[in-house]
Design goal:
The structure is a single chain. The chain is an alpha+beta fold and 138 residues long. The protein has a single domain, classed as 2-Layer Sandwich (Alpha-Beta Plaits). A four-stranded antiparallel beta sheet has the order 2-3-1-4. The protein starts with a strand and ends with a helix. Bound molecules: adenosine-5'-triphosphate. This is Nucleoside diphosphate kinase. Its cofactor is Mg(2+). InterPro entries: NDK-like_dom, NDK-like_dom_sf, Nucleoside_diP_kinase. Belongs to the NDK family.
Length: 138
């Protein structure tokens, strides 16, 4: 079995979509193994988004991710990394497929950073790294 890090981003929490996102995760058959509402620090986000350091949207991205509380979760199941990314949909919510979280619930709000409701680890290596960052006890 496999684990992934899921973030319900501050835009989703602000819009009261936390339950809807977690409902979809559980309805697909995955299990929550850790779950926490928290406000991320700049240091944590700098590590989390290390691959984007130096990009023009990096600092707006970190600001956005600190703009309010987010929900961090570790989700478990067979092929959950792929499975959650499939649930989440494409990065750009304007064109994300209907049926996905981003396609059903997201859109362009005219902001510098794409506000796309959720994050999910993109590989086994990222998942291990991100889970270690957000839930060092696990
Ligand atoms: P995530 O990692 O959040 O699940 P992703 O893998 O589809 O989504 P990444 O390429 O890792 O996206 O980018 C991280 C986040 O940075 C995106 O989810 C989005 O919020 C923002 N972002 C990515 N590319 C851009 C861009 N070109 N302009 C503005 N914001 C962006």
């Amino acid at each position: 079995t496999e684990r992934t890090l899921v973030l319900v981003k501050p835009d989703a929490v602000e819009r009261r979509l936390t339950g809807e996102v977690l409902r979809r995760v559980e309805a697909k058959g995955y299990r929550l193994v850790a779950l926490e509402l928290r406000t991320a620090t700049a240091d944590l986000l700098d590590e989390h988004y290390a691959e984007h350091r130096g990009k023009p949207f990096f600092s707006p991205l970190v600001e956005f991710m600190m703009s309010g509380p987010l929900v961090a979760a570790v989700v478990e199941g067979e092929r959950v990394i792929e499975g959650f990314r499939s649930l989440a949909g494409a990065t750009d919510p304007t064109v994300a497929a209907p049926g996905t979280v981003r396609g059903d619930l997201g859109r362009d709000w005219g902001t510098t950073v794409v506000q796309n409701l959720v994050h999910g680890s993109d590989s086994a290596e990222s998942a291990a790294r991100e889970i270690g960052l957000w839930f060092p006890g696990l």
